[in-house]
Amino acid sequence: MAIEPYLLYTVAIISLGTFQFGYNMAELNEPRDAMSCPSINTATPVDGLPPCIPMASWEFGLVTSIFAVGGLFGALASQPMGNRYGRRATLVLNSIGFIVAGMMKALAPNVPVLALGRFISGLSSGAAAVVVPLYVNEIAPPDAKGKFGAFTQISINIGILTTQILGLFLSKPQYWRLILVVGAGIGILQGVLLLGVPESPKYLVSIGNRNAARNSLARLRGSANSGMIEDEIREEEPLTGAVAENTSKVTTWEFVTRKEHRKGALIVCGLMFAQQLLGINAVIFHGVSVLKTLLPDAAGYINVVISAANLVITSVASMFFDKVSHKFLLIASMLGMATFSWLLAAGIAYGVAMLSAIACFMFVSSFSIGLGPLPWMVASKTVSYRAVDGAQSAGLVVNWIGTFIVAFAVPILPTVVSFVGFGVIGFISAATVWYGVEAY
């Protein structure tokens, strides 16, 4: 089936939600020193706002990691909202959260206000991380769901790269607030553009509105062939079942407690937890700080290169997601991250700057080929449609718990200890997937 430009446009608008996820997650990485008051600061206040906010290491760690607490609650709230109001309406409301959070952070006079803004941006990011991959999967052509599923991780990577590039130029006491304003501007853009895209056909079928589903598919497929559209709707119905059955979706609690969902819960939640505990957010949240001790003048630029490589490699790898076993890619990704995590630790321990830079680059690249994008696709491939929302929410709860652990612990623990631990978890995770997950 030919892919219509309008479908790509729709996916791009939807994916601004996960772009915001990546952007807000990494926005404090580069400007940390500028915004937390360096020891010598001669900058003058801008429009009555302090040029920086005094923060101890633990306070910065809290401001960084509270984003994950918001993400956890956002992931939980997104399921009932998505079921009741639809995917599109949920994302429109979500964009308002990004607007409020961006303005609050940009105008923050102190740590509590900055932390509250981070919490709200976490709420919207957690919801986006559930709704966007589900929405994209539901509008993607049946034979290209793997390629379209990669949009989630690609858009996150674009968001991370964007904030890192801005950080190179705006990480100064006078300008760091502009980085946070951009997030609010993107929220406004997405909220307006979402009003012109169609609702998920699968969601519309699940609530019994076949006519609206048919019209939505006609816009997305750009085809006047009513037979093709009817065939696709009928293909969706075995996944959604009868309308009466679909009004009662599997909740998050039911998904993690009922015996019939146990295997799916272990796979979905296990991969989401591993995605974080292998340490990728140690680089995304604190990459500049990790490299700064060995490469004080180049850490920011290296971090941008690493973020760009993450985007490129994920984009290239997405072409193989419908052709290569996901199990193979996950194991290769985990083994690569574990190996380069140990090499990064060795480079830091022995003061070998080049080894640290290369290992960090390969660590992120290994993440990009499997563990980054694939866990987001697992729920839609391993559980029934009735349980997909619950599976996504359960996985994201676990994912956000892992994010909080890494974001808060890395600034406190010695860097070498952190990356040795990530390596151990990586090898254990690879062995678990090898013996415990069927190929698909």
Structure, described:
This protein starts with a helix and ends with a helix. About 2% of the residues have low confidence. It has 440 residues and is an all-alpha fold. Helix 2 runs antiparallel to helix 8 and helix 5 packs antiparallel against helix 6. It has one domain: MFS general substrate transporter like domains (Growth Hormone, Chain: A). 76% of the residues lie in helices and 0% in strands.
Name the helix and strand elements from N-terminus to C-terminus, one letter apiece. Answer: HHHHHHHHHHHHHHHHHHHHH
- Based on Cα principal axes, name the global outline: globular
CATH class descriptor name: Mainly Alpha
Termini separation = 23 Å
Determine the fraction of residues in helical runs and give it as a percent range: over 70%
Number of domains: 1
- SS-based structural class? mainly alpha
Weakly predicted, low-confidence segments: 238-247
Strand content: under 5%
Number of helices: 21
Under CATH, the topology can be stated as Growth Hormone, Chain: A
In round numbers, the mean pLDDT is 84
List keywords for this structure.
single chain, 440 residues, mainly alpha, Growth Hormone, Chain: A, 21 helices, 76% helix, globular
List the SSEs and their pairings.
Blueprint: H1 5-14, H2 16-26, H3 32-35, H4 57-85, H5 87-106, H6 111-139, H7 145-170, H8 176-194, H9 201-206, H10 210-221, H11 226-240, H12 243-246, H13 252-257, H14 262-277, H15 280-292, H16 299-317, H17 326-349, H18 353-368, H19 375-382, H20 385-409, H21 415-436
Helix pairs in contact: 2-6, 2-7, 2-8, 4-5, 4-6, 4-20, 5-6, 5-8, 6-7, 6-20, 7-8, 7-16, 10-11, 14-19, 14-20, 15-16, 16-18, 17-18, 17-21
